[in-house]
Design goal:
Layout: H1 9-20, H2 22-30, H3 35-42, E1 47-48, H4 49-55, H5 61-73, E2 77-82, E3 88-93, H6 95-98, H7 101-122
Antiparallel strand pairs: 1-3, 2-3
Helix pairs in contact: 1-2
Length: 123
């Protein structure tokens, strides 16, 4: 994952665009390869780290941890730790996270239509 330094022109441009355009701001929060799919799985309810990992076999544990932290930091996902041995941690969408349902379902429908269009035009 490429880190954008907060002093770079690229970061400043990205920040200015996000400040002016709510769509860009939202895309920055849930964009990327993993955030959206993590949210998609959490639409079905609470999941533990290991369960998410099973649903996303190609993600590394480190990347899953980083993505969950980012989603938690942005108040999209909440993390609940149970005081027991072995430790139990569950992740779930926050109220605003659940509001992504219509967005995710809309992207799913659009993606299917676009994929069909591309596949049809390539035939």
């Amino acid at each position: 994952m490429t880190e954008i330094k907060q002093t770079s022109t690229n970061f400043a441009n990205k920040q200015a665009l996000a400040d002016e355009c709510p769509e860009v701001y939202a895309a920055n929060l849930i964009g990327g390869q993993w955030s959206l799919v993590i949210c998609s799985w959490l639409l079905n309810g609470k999941l533990r780290f290991g369960e998410l990992k099973k649903f996303l076999p190609n993600i590394t544990e480190r990347m899953l941890t980083l993505q969950l932290r980012k989603l938690e930091e942005n108040k999209i996902v909440s993390r609940k730790v149970y005081a027991q041995v072995p430790p139990k941690v569950e992740y779930e969408l926050t109220e605003i996270g659940y509001e992504l349902k219509s967005v995710i379902k809309g992207l799913e429908k659009w993606g299917e239509r676009h994929k069909n269009l591309i596949n049809t035009s390539e035939s």
